[in-house]
Input
Amino acid sequence: MKFMTKLSTVSALAMTVASGALAAGDMTVALQLEPPHLDPTSAAAGAIDSVLYANVFEGLTRFTSDGSIIPGLAKSWEISEDGLTYTFMLAEGVTFHDGTTMDAEDVKFSLDRARAEDSANAQKALYAGITSVDVVDPLTVKLTLAEPNGSMLFNLAWGDAVIVAPESIEGIKQQPVGTGAFKFGSWVQGDSITLEKNDAYWGTPAVLDNVTFKFISDPSAAFAAVMAEDVDVFSGYPAPENVPQFEADARFQVLIVDTEGETILSTNNKMPPFDNVMVRKAMSHAIDRQAIIDGAMFGLGTPIGTHFAPHHPDYVDLTAGSNYDPELAKKMLAEAGYADGFKTTLKLPPPSYARRGGEIIAAQLREVGIEAEISNLEWAQWLEQVFKGKDFGLTIVSHTEPMDIGIYARPDYYFQYDKPEFQALNTSLEAEADPAKRKELAVAMQKMIAEDAVNGYLFQLAVPTIAKAGVVGLWESAPTQATDMTAVHWKE
Amino acid sequence: MLRFVLKRLVSLWLSLVVASVVIFLFVEVVPGDPAAYMLGMNAQEDTLNALREQLGLNGSLLERYLSWVGGMLRGDFGTSYTYRTPVSEMIGERMWISLPLAVFALALSTLIAFPAGIWAASKRGSIADVSVMSLTQLGVAIPNFWFAMLMVLLFAVNLRWFSAGGFAGWDVGFLPAMKSLTLPAVALALPQASILARVMRSSLLDTLGEDYIRTARAKGLSRRQALWKHALRNALIPVLTIIGLQFSFLMAGAIIIENVFFLPGLGRLVFQSISARDLIVVESVVMLLVFAVILVNFLVDVAYALVDPRLRVRS
Output
């Protein structure tokens, strides 16, 4: 039996809290998008996690702001030698917000629900490898896997795997009942959601008494709300062009939050001429990443050369391999038989990184003779035409799921990269638990897709968070979509 | 009068039936699968099917139309795909923002336009007339969302008299709630007041040139008396038409203003629902707006008849 390191959530949080005097009180946090409903286990909407993850709902494991995984409701775990059995020891004395006890039965219920036949869980695939969830005793749960899975603890930290109770599942979409440091207060639909401090919390209690999430998507309304001090924090502020103004204003602090969003020029690898690796490589040299970051994101974002987050310890910087060199691009296009260039489509979803970035990329491609015809789509259309229908030449999208290089191992995934060598690497990575070997595999995978120039790798999406100067304890990077308020407080 | 009203009622119903078919078809042919939107990029086909089944999206077009219309007749607007709450409840909640906002804006625009229009007409060619005309020209020309942003910058960001947006809620009290509707209402009212004032003025000038006014003057009434006693009532017909049209504009125009002020009203609901492919909400809210417009037009028709007895006889 292998024993995993124990790290107490309680002490980790206590350290954050101990620095600086605490001031309780209320806080108003603005977000761009309102959750459609309040069940993180049955929708992909990141807005649900933005409000509820870590605040109201907790899983067996959880993410910290640097992306590492720490114990959540499971205080420790053991993994069998063959990597097929995970035994979780649950924290004691945990109760749901309705007063009922959280025990192994609830864990079984939650995980069985996520992987069930009729499950509406958006990340069902992550839990498909679990063959059974067994209750050993009220505080011990055993997970059995079909194959070893090095990412299981990571997958269990997602908002889609939080622990819910069978008795409150009926009303979860309107009245979420979790185990977190905050409990659900009220929801004025279209306007705000209020969370209240959970006085019966099993771990380190929250400092704030009430947190109100307000939903403001219009960039000028967002600006006005921050400037008028209607909101204390704006997480994911929609207009990067205003950032210098807030930086110069002593009333505010600006956090540039790294996200898990690899922003890429997705390329339809099955559609000619993109099925020719030479053409894709030529395109990668035609793109000036810094110009896109400066022009579309007002300087926010880190250039990437592959599909991996730069803040991840296993990341390798491969940007040099696809440096901006339009002359080389033209030469390569000519070698590939497209000396006069070609025409294609560039379908853009609504976010500004895509719409603004698209214009710049189209101009850069035109320089080397590629005519990309831009069409602007709404998300629902994008999902239908591009993602499902695979009817596109190029598109720009930010892949926000953490650690998602595995999508390149799915030949039917919308960009349709089909390479058995890569799929084999991915299978090994999924089964591997040893960090050093995992890193080796991850690096090999990053290099392979960069060499094949599967997609145009643009930048890691960063979003500004604007907060009043007195706010302490916000996440400085976002390994998952969340606004963890459990350790946030006012400076005295 | 009764026959007149009955005839109008029949045409009201016909319009509603036609509108419901058009709205349903338009919304249903828009590409985009609501289930795919909700489950995102990692969803599997069987998960999508399970959700479509839950939402009742697998029925035929006719089945879905009939169940939608049938439901509405019983006062059941269906259940929102995304929020999973009854649409009627959502509309009910948001109505308490949009309707007061529209009424508030309408009241403001009428209160500004009537005196301004009458004043300008009674002093035709004077400095007062010229300044009303040029101010209203400006009011028509300025886009209301831009004017709204300027007001936010001045009153919320600089002076801090108002908050930049959001709705305080009726449970906080009437005055705070009205206060959060004030800037949006002013922004909505400005162009409407300008149009209305111009219509009021020109309509009044037209009637002041009529023979019966000359007769009234000949009988010894002062210009002022003739205006108030005879001209004003006759000048009201076109003004009422405009007010009726404006009410619909206010309900619909609120979409932009509600976004500028992040007010959780009907306009914002439609806006969000369209992008989330929450078709049932879009259909029902648009239907409701159409109903409101048709109803207001009906009321305006009846009001014509009340103001002008000739219309009753003719019809």
Q: What stands out?
A: The longest helix of chain B spans residues 223-260.
